[in-house]
Amino acid sequence: MFTDAHCHPFDLALHFPDAENERRRLGVMCAASATTLEEFIYCEKLAKQAEESAAALLLPCFAIHPQATQIINNKEQRTIKNEELKIKNDKLVILDTLAAEGRLGAVGETGFDLYNAAFRETEIIQEELFAAHLDIAVCYNLPVVIHARRAMHKVFSYVGLLKKCKSVIFHSWSGTQGEGEALLRRGINAFFSFGTVIMLNHKEAMRCCAVFPRDRILIETDAPYQPPRGEAFSNYACLTNILETAAALRQETGLEEIVEKNFRSAFGC
Description:
Layout: E1 3-7, H1 9-15, H2 19-26, E2 29-34, H3 37-52, E3 58-62, H4 69-72, H5 75-78, H6 83-100, E4 106-113, H7 117-120, H8 123-139, E5 144-149, H9 152-156, H10 159-162, E6 168-170, H11 177-185, E7 190-194, H12 203-211, E8 217-219, H13 239-250, H14 255-267
Parallel strand pairs: 1-2, 2-3, 3-4, 4-5, 5-6, 6-7, 7-8
Helix pairs in contact: 6-8, 12-13
């Protein structure tokens, strides 16, 4: 069975209305990321429909994306006293409620994005949210999905909490081989997910995909946000080429079954 460790069904449907039918035709089991309640309810509806029709599993996930901190930190929002705090707290209440009700497949994607100056301005907010997300993941024994862009040093400062998490899935792994190995040595139940970047000559991602332990490898589309070269967006059909590329890098057969086993282990399904 194909597995997709990270995708955005709500956003994908805006570009590709037939996306859910394609997922079912291909038999893709996926972890569906949502960053608003509207997106989560959409994913949860898909999950229930899939369950009722015995289609491939879809796991709804929820978190405040680190890039969303720009909205929280926006000067127009801050003209209202404590408005940024209200936005954070409202979404964290939603996250905690969904976790308490057993409706989450994972907490995520959460983490850090320090890609540019605008994102770096919100670093303190990102830290506060990341710590809160991890606390909820630990409290409810849920996997956590991490987004880390130019920010692995920040992730390492939370090793103590990460070790308590049921599992830690690094979406679109962007770290180095040494960083990945260090996370495992520190006792974190880490999984490393690779998408179309391994098809785009990203040397370090390709190296990591080739050498990381076979029981730690996942694949993803990040659909629609990681398009293959020449395409406007990614979709579930990209999994075939991603999987073939990963297998070639690892010089390994039977990778689809290995990745499925890893997916079930990482997400507890």
